[in-house]
Amino acid sequence: MHIDMNSFFATCEVFKNPLLKNAPIAVVPHLKGNPVILASSYPAKYCGVKTGMRYSQAKKLCPSLQIFLSDPKFYRNISSKIMIVFKKFTPNVIPKSIDEATLDFTNVSIKQNNLEKVAFDIKKILKERVGDCFTCSIGVANSPFLAKVASNKHKPDGFYYLNPKSLLNFYSGLKLSDLHGVGKKTESKLNSLGIFTPIDFYNASLQFLQFHFKTHGYYWYLRLRGYSIDNLTIPKKSLGHSYHLRYFSNNLNYLKGIILKLSQKIGFRLRRHLLCAKTFYIYLKFVDGTKWTCRYTFTFYTNLDFEIYKNFIYIFNKNPYKNKKVKILLLSASSLSLNAYHKQKTLFGLDKKNQSFYKILDSINNKYGLFTLMPAKLLNYKNIATDRISFGR
Ligand SMILES: [Mg+2]
User: How close is the Cα of 138 to the center of ligand 1, in Å?
Assistant: First the structure.
Protein backbone atom coordinates (compact mmCIF):
# COMPACT_ATOMS: atom_id res chain seq x y z
CA MET A 1 0.00 0.00 0.00
CA HIS A 2 1.37 3.38 -1.01
CA ILE A 3 0.06 6.47 0.77
CA ASP A 4 0.66 9.97 -0.49
CA MET A 5 -0.64 12.93 1.53
CA ASN A 6 -2.40 15.48 -0.67
CA SER A 7 -0.85 18.96 -0.95
CA PHE A 8 0.93 18.26 2.28
CA PHE A 9 2.74 21.56 3.02
CA ALA A 10 -0.26 23.64 2.00
CA THR A 11 -2.57 21.47 4.11
CA CYS A 12 -0.29 21.98 7.12
CA GLU A 13 -0.83 25.72 6.68
CA VAL A 14 -4.59 25.13 6.57
CA PHE A 15 -4.25 23.10 9.78
CA LYS A 16 -2.61 26.12 11.46
CA ASN A 17 -5.30 28.45 10.16
CA PRO A 18 -8.59 26.69 9.26
CA LEU A 19 -9.93 29.89 7.66
CA LEU A 20 -7.63 29.11 4.73
CA LYS A 21 -9.67 26.03 3.84
CA ASN A 22 -10.80 26.34 0.19
CA ALA A 23 -8.45 29.30 -0.36
CA PRO A 24 -5.77 29.21 -3.07
CA ILE A 25 -2.50 29.18 -1.12
CA ALA A 26 1.11 28.27 -1.83
CA VAL A 27 4.20 27.58 0.26
CA VAL A 28 7.52 29.19 -0.68
CA PRO A 29 11.07 28.83 0.70
CA HIS A 30 11.56 32.58 1.26
CA LEU A 31 9.59 35.77 0.80
CA LYS A 32 12.21 37.80 -1.04
CA GLY A 33 12.01 38.62 -4.76
CA ASN A 34 10.25 36.06 -6.91
CA PRO A 35 10.34 32.74 -5.02
CA VAL A 36 9.66 29.28 -6.39
CA ILE A 37 6.40 27.55 -5.39
CA LEU A 38 7.17 24.49 -3.23
CA ALA A 39 3.59 23.31 -2.82
CA SER A 40 0.10 24.58 -3.41
CA SER A 41 -3.43 23.84 -2.24
CA TYR A 42 -6.02 22.26 -4.54
CA PRO A 43 -7.89 25.54 -5.17
CA ALA A 44 -4.56 26.97 -6.40
CA LYS A 45 -3.83 23.84 -8.44
CA TYR A 46 -7.18 24.19 -10.20
CA CYS A 47 -6.02 27.62 -11.41
CA GLY A 48 -2.91 26.00 -12.89
CA VAL A 49 -0.41 26.72 -10.11
CA LYS A 50 2.29 24.07 -10.05
CA THR A 51 5.27 23.08 -7.92
CA GLY A 52 8.45 24.63 -9.32
CA MET A 53 6.63 27.60 -10.83
CA ARG A 54 7.77 31.17 -10.05
CA TYR A 55 5.55 33.27 -7.80
CA SER A 56 5.00 35.97 -10.46
CA GLN A 57 3.65 33.44 -12.96
CA ALA A 58 1.48 31.76 -10.32
CA LYS A 59 0.02 35.10 -9.28
CA LYS A 60 -0.93 35.80 -12.92
CA LEU A 61 -2.79 32.48 -13.12
CA CYS A 62 -4.38 32.92 -9.73
CA PRO A 63 -4.65 36.57 -8.61
CA SER A 64 -6.05 35.69 -5.17
CA LEU A 65 -3.10 33.39 -4.37
CA GLN A 66 -1.70 33.85 -0.85
CA ILE A 67 1.83 32.69 -0.07
CA PHE A 68 3.27 31.33 3.17
CA LEU A 69 6.82 30.81 4.28
CA SER A 70 7.79 27.15 4.53
CA ASP A 71 7.83 25.80 8.11
CA PRO A 72 9.87 22.55 7.92
CA LYS A 73 9.88 21.94 11.68
CA PHE A 74 6.10 22.02 11.83
CA TYR A 75 5.73 19.83 8.71
CA ARG A 76 8.12 17.26 10.18
CA ASN A 77 6.17 17.20 13.40
CA ILE A 78 2.90 16.50 11.53
CA SER A 79 4.70 13.93 9.37
CA SER A 80 5.80 11.93 12.40
CA LYS A 81 2.22 11.92 13.72
CA ILE A 82 1.07 10.55 10.36
CA MET A 83 3.73 7.80 10.38
CA ILE A 84 2.58 6.77 13.88
CA VAL A 85 -0.93 6.27 12.49
CA PHE A 86 0.46 4.10 9.67
CA LYS A 87 2.39 1.95 12.16
CA LYS A 88 -0.85 1.00 13.90
CA PHE A 89 -1.74 -1.02 10.81
CA THR A 90 1.56 -2.73 10.00
CA PRO A 91 5.02 -2.68 11.60
CA ASN A 92 6.56 -2.44 8.13
CA VAL A 93 6.23 1.23 7.24
CA ILE A 94 8.85 2.47 4.79
CA PRO A 95 8.79 6.30 4.71
CA LYS A 96 9.50 7.52 1.16
CA SER A 97 9.49 11.22 1.89
CA ILE A 98 8.00 13.62 4.41
CA ASP A 99 4.47 12.96 3.11
CA GLU A 100 4.68 9.51 1.53
CA ALA A 101 5.14 5.98 2.76
CA THR A 102 4.89 2.39 1.58
CA LEU A 103 3.10 0.04 3.97
CA ASP A 104 4.02 -3.60 3.57
CA PHE A 105 1.26 -6.01 4.62
CA THR A 106 3.20 -9.17 3.81
CA ASN A 107 2.86 -11.43 6.88
CA VAL A 108 0.26 -9.14 8.45
CA SER A 109 -2.95 -11.03 8.98
CA ILE A 110 -5.29 -9.07 6.74
CA LYS A 111 -7.02 -10.60 3.78
CA GLN A 112 -6.09 -8.99 0.47
CA ASN A 113 -9.65 -7.89 -0.17
CA ASN A 114 -9.80 -6.20 3.22
CA LEU A 115 -7.02 -3.77 2.34
CA GLU A 116 -9.71 -1.50 0.96
CA LYS A 117 -11.23 -1.35 4.44
CA VAL A 118 -7.78 -0.74 5.95
CA ALA A 119 -7.23 2.13 3.50
CA PHE A 120 -10.46 3.83 4.49
CA ASP A 121 -9.74 3.25 8.19
CA ILE A 122 -6.37 4.97 7.72
CA LYS A 123 -8.05 7.93 6.03
CA LYS A 124 -10.55 8.19 8.89
CA ILE A 125 -7.96 7.91 11.68
CA LEU A 126 -5.69 10.50 10.02
CA LYS A 127 -8.57 12.96 10.21
CA GLU A 128 -9.33 12.09 13.83
CA ARG A 129 -5.79 12.00 15.21
CA VAL A 130 -3.81 14.36 12.99
CA GLY A 131 -6.29 16.87 11.64
CA ASP A 132 -9.60 17.09 9.82
CA CYS A 133 -8.02 18.84 6.83
CA PHE A 134 -5.60 16.01 5.98
CA THR A 135 -6.47 13.78 3.06
CA CYS A 136 -4.37 11.25 1.20
CA SER A 137 -4.36 9.16 -1.94
CA ILE A 138 -3.87 5.44 -1.46
CA GLY A 139 -2.82 2.78 -3.96
CA VAL A 140 -2.85 -0.96 -3.29
CA ALA A 141 -0.99 -3.38 -5.54
CA ASN A 142 1.33 -6.37 -5.31
CA SER A 143 4.56 -4.37 -5.58
CA PRO A 144 5.70 -1.04 -4.11
CA PHE A 145 6.21 0.36 -7.61
CA LEU A 146 2.68 -0.45 -8.79
CA ALA A 147 1.17 0.72 -5.49
CA LYS A 148 2.82 4.10 -5.95
CA VAL A 149 1.59 4.42 -9.52
CA ALA A 150 -1.89 3.36 -8.36
CA SER A 151 -1.87 6.00 -5.60
CA ASN A 152 -1.52 8.70 -8.26
CA LYS A 153 -4.59 7.47 -10.13
CA HIS A 154 -7.13 9.45 -8.12
CA LYS A 155 -6.28 12.72 -6.41
CA PRO A 156 -7.14 14.16 -3.97
CA ASP A 157 -8.49 11.75 -1.35
CA GLY A 158 -8.37 8.80 -3.74
CA PHE A 159 -8.19 5.06 -3.47
CA TYR A 160 -7.19 2.59 -6.15
CA TYR A 161 -6.92 -1.16 -5.81
CA LEU A 162 -4.91 -2.56 -8.69
CA ASN A 163 -6.04 -6.06 -9.46
CA PRO A 164 -3.00 -7.95 -10.81
CA LYS A 165 -5.28 -9.48 -13.44
CA SER A 166 -6.18 -6.11 -14.92
CA LEU A 167 -2.65 -4.77 -15.23
CA LEU A 168 -2.97 -4.01 -18.95
CA ASN A 169 -6.26 -2.24 -18.42
CA PHE A 170 -4.55 -0.13 -15.74
CA TYR A 171 -1.64 0.73 -18.04
CA SER A 172 -3.99 1.69 -20.86
CA GLY A 173 -5.10 4.76 -18.88
CA LEU A 174 -1.55 5.99 -18.19
CA LYS A 175 1.18 7.98 -19.86
CA LEU A 176 4.84 6.92 -19.76
CA SER A 177 5.60 9.81 -17.42
CA ASP A 178 3.04 8.40 -14.95
CA LEU A 179 5.41 5.49 -14.31
CA HIS A 180 7.53 6.43 -11.33
CA GLY A 181 11.16 6.43 -12.48
CA VAL A 182 10.51 7.37 -16.10
CA GLY A 183 11.98 10.86 -16.35
CA LYS A 184 12.18 13.13 -19.38
CA LYS A 185 15.41 11.49 -20.55
CA THR A 186 14.11 7.93 -20.36
CA GLU A 187 10.86 8.98 -21.97
CA SER A 188 12.57 10.51 -25.01
CA LYS A 189 14.80 7.46 -25.35
CA LEU A 190 11.75 5.19 -25.21
CA ASN A 191 10.01 7.37 -27.82
CA SER A 192 13.01 7.12 -30.11
CA LEU A 193 12.69 3.33 -29.87
CA GLY A 194 9.01 3.43 -30.83
CA ILE A 195 7.65 3.11 -27.29
CA PHE A 196 5.04 5.78 -26.59
CA THR A 197 2.74 4.29 -23.98
CA PRO A 198 3.05 2.05 -20.90
CA ILE A 199 1.37 -0.69 -22.99
CA ASP A 200 4.12 -0.42 -25.64
CA PHE A 201 6.66 -0.55 -22.81
CA TYR A 202 5.00 -3.63 -21.32
CA ASN A 203 4.88 -5.38 -24.69
CA ALA A 204 8.57 -4.75 -25.45
CA SER A 205 10.54 -8.00 -25.29
CA LEU A 206 13.11 -8.66 -22.62
CA GLN A 207 15.86 -8.98 -25.25
CA PHE A 208 14.92 -5.60 -26.72
CA LEU A 209 14.91 -3.82 -23.34
CA GLN A 210 18.15 -5.47 -22.24
CA PHE A 211 19.81 -4.52 -25.51
CA HIS A 212 18.90 -0.84 -25.17
CA PHE A 213 18.92 -0.34 -21.38
CA LYS A 214 21.25 -3.11 -20.13
CA THR A 215 20.36 -4.23 -16.57
CA HIS A 216 17.84 -1.41 -16.19
CA GLY A 217 15.91 -2.86 -19.10
CA TYR A 218 15.73 -6.12 -17.18
CA TYR A 219 14.51 -4.33 -14.07
CA TRP A 220 11.83 -2.49 -16.03
CA TYR A 221 10.71 -5.74 -17.59
CA LEU A 222 10.18 -7.23 -14.12
CA ARG A 223 8.83 -4.06 -12.52
CA LEU A 224 6.13 -3.66 -15.16
CA ARG A 225 5.03 -7.23 -14.46
CA GLY A 226 4.55 -6.55 -10.76
CA TYR A 227 7.73 -8.05 -9.29
CA SER A 228 8.87 -6.34 -6.09
CA ILE A 229 12.38 -5.72 -7.29
CA ASP A 230 12.83 -2.23 -5.88
CA ASN A 231 13.35 -3.31 -2.29
CA LEU A 232 15.94 -5.94 -3.09
CA THR A 233 19.65 -5.70 -2.58
CA ILE A 234 21.19 -7.55 -5.50
CA PRO A 235 23.16 -8.91 -7.11
CA LYS A 236 24.90 -11.34 -4.84
CA LYS A 237 27.70 -13.40 -6.27
CA SER A 238 26.99 -16.64 -4.48
CA LEU A 239 24.88 -18.02 -1.70
CA GLY A 240 25.83 -20.93 0.51
CA HIS A 241 25.72 -22.77 3.81
CA SER A 242 28.24 -24.82 5.70
CA TYR A 243 27.73 -27.42 8.39
CA HIS A 244 30.20 -28.78 10.97
CA LEU A 245 29.14 -32.32 11.76
CA ARG A 246 28.73 -33.06 15.44
CA TYR A 247 29.31 -36.77 14.73
CA PHE A 248 31.83 -37.25 11.93
CA SER A 249 30.37 -39.61 9.38
CA ASN A 250 30.88 -41.45 6.11
CA ASN A 251 27.31 -42.75 6.05
CA LEU A 252 26.18 -41.65 2.59
CA ASN A 253 22.51 -41.70 3.45
CA TYR A 254 23.07 -39.48 6.47
CA LEU A 255 25.26 -37.07 4.50
CA LYS A 256 22.64 -36.87 1.74
CA GLY A 257 20.08 -35.89 4.38
CA ILE A 258 22.26 -32.96 5.39
CA ILE A 259 22.62 -32.01 1.73
CA LEU A 260 18.83 -32.12 1.42
CA LYS A 261 18.45 -29.82 4.39
CA LEU A 262 21.05 -27.33 3.17
CA SER A 263 19.42 -27.43 -0.29
CA GLN A 264 16.14 -26.34 1.26
CA LYS A 265 17.88 -23.38 2.87
CA ILE A 266 19.60 -22.37 -0.35
CA GLY A 267 16.38 -22.70 -2.35
CA PHE A 268 14.45 -20.61 0.16
CA ARG A 269 17.03 -17.84 0.06
CA LEU A 270 17.32 -17.88 -3.73
CA ARG A 271 13.56 -17.51 -4.12
CA ARG A 272 13.43 -14.85 -1.44
CA HIS A 273 15.91 -12.76 -3.45
CA LEU A 274 14.17 -13.63 -6.74
CA LEU A 275 17.33 -15.35 -7.89
CA CYS A 276 18.15 -18.54 -9.76
CA ALA A 277 21.47 -20.37 -9.91
CA LYS A 278 23.10 -22.81 -12.27
CA THR A 279 26.57 -23.40 -10.75
CA PHE A 280 26.80 -25.56 -7.65
CA TYR A 281 29.78 -26.27 -5.45
CA ILE A 282 30.57 -28.79 -2.73
CA TYR A 283 33.44 -28.62 -0.25
CA LEU A 284 34.12 -31.58 2.01
CA LYS A 285 36.65 -31.54 4.81
CA PHE A 286 37.57 -34.93 6.17
CA VAL A 287 38.58 -35.96 9.67
CA ASP A 288 42.18 -36.57 8.53
CA GLY A 289 42.49 -32.91 7.50
CA THR A 290 42.32 -33.50 3.75
CA LYS A 291 39.59 -32.00 1.57
CA TRP A 292 37.73 -32.53 -1.66
CA THR A 293 35.95 -29.86 -3.68
CA CYS A 294 33.96 -29.91 -6.89
CA ARG A 295 32.11 -27.25 -8.85
CA TYR A 296 29.74 -27.93 -11.72
CA THR A 297 27.71 -25.64 -13.96
CA PHE A 298 24.44 -27.09 -15.19
CA THR A 299 22.57 -26.14 -18.36
CA PHE A 300 19.49 -24.73 -16.63
CA TYR A 301 18.94 -22.15 -13.95
CA THR A 302 16.86 -23.18 -10.97
CA ASN A 303 15.70 -22.12 -7.53
CA LEU A 304 13.54 -25.16 -6.77
CA ASP A 305 14.63 -27.25 -3.75
CA PHE A 306 14.35 -30.67 -5.36
CA GLU A 307 16.34 -29.61 -8.42
CA ILE A 308 19.00 -27.97 -6.26
CA TYR A 309 19.22 -31.18 -4.25
CA LYS A 310 19.51 -33.29 -7.41
CA ASN A 311 22.32 -31.06 -8.66
CA PHE A 312 24.22 -31.34 -5.39
CA ILE A 313 23.80 -35.11 -5.31
CA TYR A 314 25.12 -35.31 -8.88
CA ILE A 315 28.27 -33.54 -7.67
CA PHE A 316 28.45 -35.39 -4.36
CA ASN A 317 28.46 -38.75 -6.13
CA LYS A 318 31.75 -37.77 -7.77
CA ASN A 319 33.47 -37.78 -4.37
CA PRO A 320 36.16 -40.49 -4.67
CA TYR A 321 36.79 -40.72 -0.90
CA LYS A 322 33.59 -42.45 0.12
CA ASN A 323 35.24 -44.15 3.10
CA LYS A 324 36.63 -40.99 4.68
CA LYS A 325 34.61 -39.51 7.50
CA VAL A 326 33.33 -36.00 6.77
CA LYS A 327 33.91 -33.24 9.32
CA ILE A 328 32.70 -30.13 7.45
CA LEU A 329 30.24 -29.92 4.57
CA LEU A 330 29.83 -26.72 2.59
CA LEU A 331 27.41 -26.16 -0.27
CA SER A 332 27.04 -23.09 -2.39
CA ALA A 333 25.16 -21.86 -5.44
CA SER A 334 26.54 -19.30 -7.87
CA SER A 335 26.14 -17.96 -11.46
CA LEU A 336 23.14 -16.19 -10.04
CA SER A 337 20.62 -14.54 -12.27
CA LEU A 338 17.86 -12.20 -11.23
CA ASN A 339 14.54 -13.98 -11.42
CA ALA A 340 15.49 -16.05 -14.41
CA TYR A 341 12.14 -17.83 -14.43
CA HIS A 342 12.18 -17.62 -18.19
CA LYS A 343 15.46 -19.54 -18.26
CA GLN A 344 14.17 -22.33 -16.06
CA LYS A 345 13.73 -25.84 -17.23
CA THR A 346 10.10 -26.50 -18.03
CA LEU A 347 9.27 -30.08 -17.17
CA PHE A 348 6.16 -31.10 -19.05
CA GLY A 349 4.27 -28.02 -17.92
CA LEU A 350 5.12 -28.69 -14.28
CA ASP A 351 6.71 -25.30 -13.98
CA LYS A 352 3.58 -23.35 -13.17
CA LYS A 353 2.50 -25.97 -10.65
CA ASN A 354 5.93 -25.88 -9.03
CA GLN A 355 5.90 -22.14 -8.78
CA SER A 356 2.56 -22.01 -7.02
CA PHE A 357 3.64 -24.87 -4.75
CA TYR A 358 6.82 -23.04 -3.70
CA LYS A 359 4.92 -19.80 -3.28
CA ILE A 360 2.71 -21.45 -0.66
CA LEU A 361 5.61 -23.33 0.92
CA ASP A 362 7.64 -20.13 1.25
CA SER A 363 4.80 -18.06 2.63
CA ILE A 364 4.21 -20.62 5.39
CA ASN A 365 7.92 -21.02 6.18
CA ASN A 366 8.42 -17.30 6.04
CA LYS A 367 5.69 -16.78 8.60
CA TYR A 368 6.32 -19.65 11.01
CA GLY A 369 10.03 -20.28 10.46
CA LEU A 370 12.03 -22.26 7.95
CA PHE A 371 11.41 -26.05 8.08
CA THR A 372 7.84 -25.63 9.35
CA LEU A 373 7.00 -27.44 6.13
CA MET A 374 9.74 -29.75 4.89
CA PRO A 375 10.31 -33.11 3.21
CA ALA A 376 9.42 -36.00 5.55
CA LYS A 377 12.96 -37.34 5.27
CA LEU A 378 14.16 -34.32 7.25
CA LEU A 379 12.16 -35.29 10.35
CA ASN A 380 15.29 -37.11 11.52
CA TYR A 381 17.43 -34.03 10.96
CA LYS A 382 15.65 -31.64 13.30
CA ASN A 383 18.69 -30.47 15.24
CA ILE A 384 21.02 -30.41 12.27
CA ALA A 385 21.73 -27.21 10.36
CA THR A 386 18.84 -25.40 12.03
CA ASP A 387 17.27 -22.20 10.79
CA ARG A 388 19.57 -19.26 11.27
CA ILE A 389 18.00 -16.88 8.78
CA SER A 390 16.46 -13.94 10.57
CA PHE A 391 12.86 -13.22 9.67
CA GLY A 392 11.06 -9.97 9.24
CA ARG A 393 12.83 -6.67 9.34
MG1 LIG B 1 2.05 14.33 -1.59
Answer: 11
